[in-house]
């Protein structure tokens, strides 16, 4: 099935007869104000992540909505069932996020990296959760939610894209990256001249946590030799709760590099590519950061030092890397 998906050149977009647009009650929370007081790096991400969008469709008839970035989500009639496997009727609230830019990926701590730590080239990430009443609901057997992602937002058509999801923690191999992406063999990814269409057949379990999907090229970095990259902080990471990322140049990809002892080590760095080391720290409620341009060389060590910054200044500098 994957071979057919990867070789597809055109997609016939199915129009659901009962799935007309009715994105009433669509709301987008306002962007957070400038904040320079954080209790932790986790608090920084929580306050500055891409905001949740909320849409409403009718369970019996289905519906569709389009986000401000141009992502269109199409939901067929009778698409949802509750925990008793009973078809959901009445209004269904859809919580949704769409992420295309590397800066938004970093601010949401949603890197393009597999459960085995390898980098991915992304055509867009999304989060979705469906709620009826006060209960998160599941996708009914045989139903599919279509998420149409604009190709122009991520640099043009790449026919090697396939669907990925974040697996539940219980299914991740011991030692794997719990926040990483795994290919989704039961979902589909087709494309037209203007959109990738992610066919989502299953929500992740537990459904209360919502589902993350991602259209990715897993083979893009295979043409580069992998090397061990060491990122050495001059500041004590324990004192600053330091998080470190690599944001690649001219590739829609960024990875989260985790600490191993006093340093941050990444064993799958693509040799020869340019990227920027972006470090974030919080100490005494204040935000600190570092931006270091890097051309990855074999067995390289890169030093960095944190300096105090503001949220707006950090965001401005980060957006230059998109």
Produce the secondary structure layout.
Blueprint: H1 2-7, H2 41-48, E1 53-58, E2 63-66, E3 72-75, E4 80-81, E5 91-99, H3 102-107, E6 121-132, E7 135-136, E8 138-139, E9 145-150, E10 162-166, E11 181-183, E12 188-191, E13 195-200, E14 211-217, E15 226-233, H4 237-240, E16 243-248, E17 254-257, E18 259-260, E19 263-270, E20 274-283, E21 286-295, E22 301-304, E23 307-309, H5 311-319
Parallel strand pairs: 15-22
Antiparallel strand pairs: 1-5, 2-3, 3-9, 4-8, 5-6, 6-7, 6-14, 9-13, 10-11, 10-14, 12-13, 15-19, 16-17, 16-20, 18-19, 20-21, 21-23
Description:
The protein has about 325 residues and is mainly β. It folds into 2 domains: about 1-220, Chondroitinase Ac, Chain A, domain 3 (Sandwich); about 225-320, Immunoglobulin-like (Sandwich). It is about 10% helix and about 40% strand. The chain has 5 helices and 23 strands. It has helices at about 1-5, 40-50, 100-105, 235-240, 310-320, and strands spanning about 55-60, 65, 70-75, 80, 90-100, 120-130, 135, 140, 145-150, 160-165, 180-185, 190, 195-200, 210-215, 225-235, 245-250, 255, 260, 265-270, 275-285, 285-295, 300-305, 305-310. It is globular, with a radius of gyration of 20 Å. The two termini are about 35 Å apart. Mean pLDDT is about 90; it is low at about 1-35 and about 170-175.
User: Low-confidence parts, pLDDT < 50 over ≥5 residues?
Assistant: 1-33, 170-176
Quaternary state of this entry equals single chain
β content, as a range? 35-45%
* The CATH architecture of the largest domain: Sandwich
What fold name stands as the CATH topology of the largest domain?
Answer: Chondroitinase Ac, Chain A, domain 3
Helix percent reads 10-25%
What is the number of strand segments?
A: 23
> Termini distance?
33 Å
* Cα-atom radius of gyration: 20 Å
Q: Structural class per helix/strand content?
A: mainly beta
How many domains, as an integer? 2
* N-to-C series of helices and strands: HHEEEEEHEEEEEEEEEEHEEEEEEEEH
């Amino acid at each position: 099935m994957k071979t057919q998906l990867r070789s597809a050149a055109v997609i016939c977009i199915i129009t659901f007869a009962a799935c007309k647009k009715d994105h009433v009650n669509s709301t987008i929370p306002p962007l957070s104000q400038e904040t320079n007081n954080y209790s932790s790096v986790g608090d920084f991400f929580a306050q500055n992540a891409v905001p949740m969008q909320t849409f409403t469709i009718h369970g019996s008839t289905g519906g569709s909505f389009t986000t401000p970035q141009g992502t269109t989500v199409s939901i067929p009639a009778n698409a949802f069932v509750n925990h008793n496997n009973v078809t959901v009727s009445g209004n269904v609230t859809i919580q949704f996020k769409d992420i295309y830019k590397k800066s938004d990926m970093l601010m949401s701590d949603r890197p393009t990296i597999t459960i085995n730590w390898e980098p991915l080239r992304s055509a867009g990430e999304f989060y979705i959760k469906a709620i009826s009443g006060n209960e998160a609901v599941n996708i009914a057997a045989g139903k599919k939610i279509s998420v149409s992602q604009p190709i122009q937002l991520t640099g043009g058509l790449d026919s090697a894209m396939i669907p990925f999801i974040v697996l539940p923690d219980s299914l991740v191999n011991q030692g794997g990256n719990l926040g990483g992406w795994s290919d989704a063999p039961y979902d589909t990814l087709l494309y037209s001249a203007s959109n990738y269409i992610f066919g989502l057949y299953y929500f992740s379990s537990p459904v209360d946590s919502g589902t993350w999907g991602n259209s990715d090229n897993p083979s893009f970095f295979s043409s580069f030799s992998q090397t061990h990259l060491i990122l050495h902080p001059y500041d004590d990471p324990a004192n600053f709760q330091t998080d470190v990322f690599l944001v690649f140049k001219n590739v829609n990809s960024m990875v989260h590099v985790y600490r191993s002892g006093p340093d941050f080590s990444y064993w799958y760095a693509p040799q020869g590519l340019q990227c920027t080391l972006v470090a974030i720290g919080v100490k005494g409620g204040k935000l600190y950061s570092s931006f270091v341009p890097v051309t990855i060389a074999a067995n390289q060590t890169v030093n960095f030092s944190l300096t105090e910054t503001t949220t707006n200044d950090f965001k401005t500098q980060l957006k230059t890397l998109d």
